[in-house]
Specification:
By secondary structure, this protein is an alpha/beta fold. The chain has one domain: Rossmann fold, CATH 3.40.50. Helices cover about 40% and strands about 20% of the residues. It has a five-stranded parallel beta sheet with strand order 3-2-1-4-5, sandwiched between helices.
């Protein structure tokens, strides 16, 4: 039986930390669905379409990884795509507290759902999309944090040469 996992997030923008988890997840599971949350309450920098394009660019060559957008409850979406595993990245203890609460709620909503916590490579343990956006907005170098295509798009968004 095929093991399907969902890696949800806003990916605004995708970082090397996200890519690390996607690549490692692709080795663990038969199918990985990178799921971009359409959250109307947040004001993302990039549109869902732009985030999909960036993610599709970085997962090229990973045959068992696909990128989709979704809205609504994650457990409902996971069930619709036949996934029984939710992948979540944890960088610090503060992440764990929030993620544990979400994992327990997701299990309560669907007892078929398991959450797998993954720790990023040490070199990405401090990295977040929010920090990357802030650095880029102020013209700082983000070369080591995101792929070249993402760096270019951030520069365009802020009208800067990064």
């Amino acid at each position: 039986m095929e093991t399907r996992a969902v890696y949800p997030g806003s990916f605004d923008p995708v970082t090397n930390g996200h890519i690390d988890l996607i690549q490692r997840s692709a080795k663990l599971f038969d199918k990985v669905i990178v799921a971009i949350l359409k959250n109307m309450e947040k004001a993302p920098l990039f549109t869902v379409k732009e985030r999909m394009e960036m993610l599709e660019e970085v997962v090229q060559g990973l045959d068992n990884v696909s990128v989709v957008a979704f809205s609504g409850l994650l457990v409902d979406f996971a069930g619709q795509v036949g996934a029984s595993i939710i992948i979540r990245g944890i960088r610090a203890v503060s992440d764990y507290e929030y993620e544990l609460q979400m994992a327990l709620m997701n299990r309560r909503l669907s007892n078929r759902m398991e959450t797998v916590f993954m720790i990023p490579a040490e070199s990405y343990s401090f990295l977040s999309s929010r920090l990357v956006r802030e650095i880029a907005q102020h013209g700082g170098s983000i070369k080591e944090f995101v792929p070249g295509g993402v760096e270019r798009r951030l520069g365009e968004k802020f009208g800067l040469q990064l």
